[in-house]
């Protein structure tokens, strides 16, 4: 069973090498770093650490994830995580095994454990909580986070054809999984302070803008999936 990790990265030269090496040590078959238009040495550092580097100059988390998925068409299990070294990957093997053994189709590394000081700014914690509540309310599936660390069955991922090219990619994936009755498992973890500069959490205004975009995505996908259910009903 082939496990591929996809790591979107934008100007993460300080962190990306360690992220790739940790994944290689964890036994991931292939690590794909998607260079999302970096202006530093992210691509070179990632390649030197042992990853396959895919270039996606179109800025956007979703655009980078889609490029990574396209570069791994035969993956049985796909792992997603950020390239900023914030992820605590101690239970990564358990998440992969849960998907490999059919216990779930989507495993989420939810950020509910105590984290290091300043690991997550207050506005990020609040936004994550509100967005998870929105998704839970609409889908009927209890969700505590919409995390960057995700492990998903490859065939299921390709069937979803997640197309959001900006910040709503993760929300679209999780909302579609919940609406289609896929088994979702949550694995509590903490986070570490990021290395380098955040692209999202630097200001309250930017957090609000990103949060609104994610909320709109959740509602849009919920409506789409409800519409599909009506069409399929006899």
**Strand fraction band?**
5-15%
CATH architecture assignment name: Alpha-Beta Complex
CATH third-level topology: Spore Coat Polysaccharide Biosynthesis Protein SpsA, Chain A
Which residues form runs of ≥5 with pLDDT under 50?
A: none
Mind telling me the C-alpha Rg?
A: 17 Å
The chain-level structural class is: alpha/beta
Largest sheet: 7 strands, mixed
Give the H and E element order.
EHEHEHEHEHEHHEH
For the record, the count of structural domains works out to 1
Distance between the termini: 38 Å
Description:
With 234 residues, this protein is α/β, with parallel strands linked by helices. The chain has one domain (3-228): Spore Coat Polysaccharide Biosynthesis Protein SpsA, Chain A. 44% of the residues lie in helices and 13% in strands. A 7-stranded mixed sheet has the order 3-2-1-4-6-5-7, sandwiched between helices. Helix 2 (42-49) links the parallel strand 2 (30-35) and strand 3 (52-55). Helix 7 packs parallel to helix 8 (204-232). The longest helix is centred in the C-terminal third of the chain and has 29 residues, at 204-232. It starts with a strand and ends with a helix.
